[in-house]
Amino acid sequence: MGEAIATVGSADGMLEAEILRGLLISAGITVWLSHESAGTVYGMGVGPLAQVDLIVPASQEALARQILEDYRAGRLAEDAEDKPAEGEGPEPV
Predict the structure, then answer these.
(1) Residue 66 covered by a domain
(2) Each residue of 25-46: pLDDT tens digit?
(3) Which residue ranges in the chain fall short of pLDDT 70?
(4) What are phi and psi of 84, to 5 degrees?
(5) How far is residue 3's CA from residue 59's CA, in Å, rounded to a whole number?
(6) Do residues 20 and 11 touch, judged by C-beta distance below 8 A?
(7) How far apart are CA 25 and CA 21, in angstroms?
(8) 43: phi > 0 → left, psi -120 to 50 → alpha, else beta; which?
(9) Of 10, 46, 70, 74, whose CB count within 10 A is highest?
(10) Which residues partner with 42 through β-bridges?
């Protein structure tokens, strides 16, 4: 039989789900999205029909949950003060 899976979170709509999926994929996590197809047919962006579940292999569940928690808490955001503004920084050689 296949590996067990786990739902690690949900998103409010496909746009947010695709962003979260990309975040998890960039960390090497396999992700599947599960949603009610009626929400897509009717273009629902809010409410229960718009909810999209994020599903990962059970072996990657802990890492996926930590990444999503860090993302939602803003711990993954780059601090703008740490980056030079456009046009600033070292001169090209």
Answers:
(1) yes
(2) 999 999 999 986 655 555 655 6
(3) 1, 36-48, 78-93
(4) -70, 145
(5) 8
(6) yes
(7) 6
(8) left
(9) 10
(10) none
CA distance 21 to 29: 9
Return d(Cα 70, Cα 29) in angstroms, integer.
Answer: 15
Two tokens, residue 74: 């803003």
Token pair in block for residue 19:
């962003």
At residue 63, what are phi and psi to the nearest 5 degrees?
-65, -45
Model-level pTM? 0.72
- Cβ-contact 32, 7 below 8 angstroms: no
Q: What is the CATH number of the domain that holds 53?
A: 3.30.70.1530
Evaluate whether 68 touches 22 at the Cβ level (below 8 Å).
no
